[in-house]
Amino acid sequence: GQQLNQSPQSMFIQEGEDVSMNCTSSSIFNTWLWYKQEPGEGPVLLIALYKAGELTSNGRLTAQFGITRKDSFLNISASIPSDVGIYFCAGYTGNQFYFGTGTSLTVIP
Amino acid sequence: EAEVAQSPRYKITEKSQAVAFWCDPISGHATLYWYRQILGQGPELLVQFQDESVVDDSQLPKDRFSAERLKGVDSTLKIQPAELGDSAMYLCASSQLAGGLAGSYNEQFFGPGTRLTVL
To answer: What distance in Å separates the CA atoms of residue A70 and residue B116, rounded to the nearest whole number?
Structure first.
């Protein structure tokens, strides 16, 4: 199955710093999604994006649906220790979900 | 709050043995998904059900994997025989409906997963 390319693969940041990660695909998607997964748990939806160019915020999280519909970006502002986890992007074709390779985030207090 | 339930949470088995995982989706959710997540990767869809019918099992290794959702509610995923490469997290998710019109999305809710280790 297809996997989307996420970068960076991992990040180690100081508490209070901003974080940026992105996701790219060779295919066009109708919907882009961002999930967070903590150890031993399933992914939890953070943000859903429905239109090319759309910019959506959820608290300290902001995500954008790329104009080409082949990429998406997630920003986390003023990181806190509980932001630790693995962040996955996912593209939705209308029939199936394809997940990215994940970005592991470590926040150092 | 309604949740997707999965059991067992952890399973250790020897290769060539049979294993089975169970999933109970959120009540009223018509669509159920089984994903496999290898360590360090994102989830990959194995099979998708709409009620009791399989709508996509193109990535399911059918020589050893089987899945059923007989009454359109809970579901079982089976591996027989298990191989070393099957070690992974097996995630179940459900949503109210599959698909959606452009500009809409039926949110998937994931269970906690079953961590399988094949020795």
So the answer is: 33
- Rounded to the nearest angstrom, the minimum Cα separation between B105 and chain A is 8
Per-residue pLDDT reduced to its tens digit, B75-116: 999 999 999 999 999 999 998 876 544 445 678 899 999 999
Q: Is A24 on the interface with B (CB under 8 A)?
A: no
CA of A24, closest CA in chain B: separation in Å? 14
Give burial (CB, 10 Å; 0-12/13-18/19+) of A3: middle
Round to whole Å and give the CA distance between B119 and B105.
40
Closest Cβ–Cβ partner in A41, A97, A100 for B112: A41
Give residue A73's Cα distance to chain centre: 6
Token pair 């994006």: residue = A49
How high is the pLDDT of residue B96?
85
